[in-house]
Amino acid sequence: xxxxxxxxxxxxxxxxxxxxxxxxxxxxxxxxxxxxxxxxxxxxxxxxxxxxxxxxxxxxxxxxxxxxxxxxxxxxxxxxxxxxxxxxxxxxxxxxxxxxxxxxxxxxxxxxxxxxxxxxxxxxxxxxxxxxxxxxxxxxxxxxxxxxxxxxxxxxxxxxxxxxxxxxxxxxxxxxxxxxxxxxxxxxxxxxxxxxxxxxxxxxxxxxxxxxxxxxxxxxxxxxxxxxxxxxxxxxx
Length: 237
Fold this sequence. Notes:
By secondary structure, this protein is of the alpha+beta class. It has helices at about 1-25, 25-55, 65-75, 115-125, and strands spanning about 80-85, 95-105, 110-115, 135-145, 150, 155-160, 160-170, 180-185, 200-205, 210, 225-230. A hairpin with a 3-residue loop joins strand 6 (about 155-160) and strand 7. The longest helix is centred in the first third of the chain and has 27 residues, at about 25-55. The chain is elongated, with a radius of gyration of 28 Å.
């Protein structure tokens, strides 16, 4: 009986302390607490987004092609070159590029394109044929001599927010090119008047070229498991 009274007394004391603590929580303190929680939530979302936006794995290193492996095995003269790009994010924020290299010995150009899921959603504001089309965007390279490179292979990766494509163009001779541009199109509207067309300058003969620090695995290199670029048609007259 005495133990029961003591237990009830302890519970009553705890209850009184909780009530006293709650009374001390003024309106301003509650607002401050909510504000702190909001700040924590925002920072968590930002950090999560930054983490997902990172170029990692196959999107952040050199992708071996069969031609590259043969050349590498036959000669030590194999260098990944790059230039500082004038822009890495397009004006609308739809696309960004990173890890750009070109290999003069084999006339190869590689880079990674990243785009947000919202970029795909934006298409629905302009087109009615967006769903179930496979690859949404296609890519070409053009130089100042009028050469157009529209056949490529790629590696793909995606997460909750972002889509990544590691693109490889072969047979791109920059020895006589003044400039080289990447062009990005919606696959069903491959024209410079497209609602979501954008371009990036990849090469300028007057700019400084230097050796890239892109990751490259030279220990028994293996050809990456590429997908061939989709077939598309130009709408420009």
